[in-house]
Amino acid sequence: MFEKLILSLYTGTLFSIVFLVAPVLLRTEKDKNLAGRFYGRILWRFYKLAFFMLLFYFLIADEKVYALLLMVGLALNVGLSFYLKNLKRELGDIDQIDYNHPKRVKFRRLSLLSTALLFINFLLSTFILIKTFGGADGV
Q1: How far apart are alpha carbons 81 and 44 in whole angstroms?
Q2: How far is 104 from 138, CA to CA, in rounded Å?
Q3: DSSP label at 110?
Q4: Can you spell out the DSSP letters for 35-71?
């Protein structure tokens, strides 16, 4: 029962980030620098929370492979976010850089990749949640 709660919280948090937070903050036309910093802070706090949720899930889950898959997905996101954070430091205020500048284009594409990875993690966690706990047998 506790493992179902942890996985549900993880999946719900991913849903919120992918479908609520990211579209609102990353589609803004003005003050992209401020929106990006705010989104980055949300992501880094999520990563800390998600790590502990997945660690507990790994410790109590029967299917360790699923927990490891989710942890690998989270690790990919953390690694990409760390790279984006360093790239952002090089760029400085993104609002001051031309939209078509190669480094800004690279940053934008990697940001989209990061969101896509979060979406894939969401799909994977939803699949695991349904496969592990769904159906009449899970009741």
Answers
A1: 8
A2: 48
A3: H
A4: HHHHHHHHHHHHHHHHHHHHHHHHHH-S-HHHHHHHH
Cα 107 to Cα 33, 85, 116: the distances in Å are 12, 10, 14
pLDDT on residue 135: 56
Q: Which of 80, 67, 107 is nearest to 91 (CA)?
A: 107
Residue 11 makes CB contacts below 8 A (sequence gap 6+) with: 122, 125, 126, 129
Supply the Cα-derived Rg of the chain in whole angstroms.
17
- Count, residues in the chain: 139
Distances in Å between the Cα of 110 and the Cα atoms of 5, 21, 83, 101, 134 are 32, 17, 9, 14, 34
Entry pTM: 0.85
Q: Is the dihedral of CA 94, 76, 120, 46 positive or negative?
A: negative
Place of tokens 């940053």: 107
Ordered mean pLDDT values, 10 residues apiece, the chain (139 residues): 89 92 80 85 93 93 90 95 92 86 90 92 93 64
| pLDDT the model gives residue 47 | 94
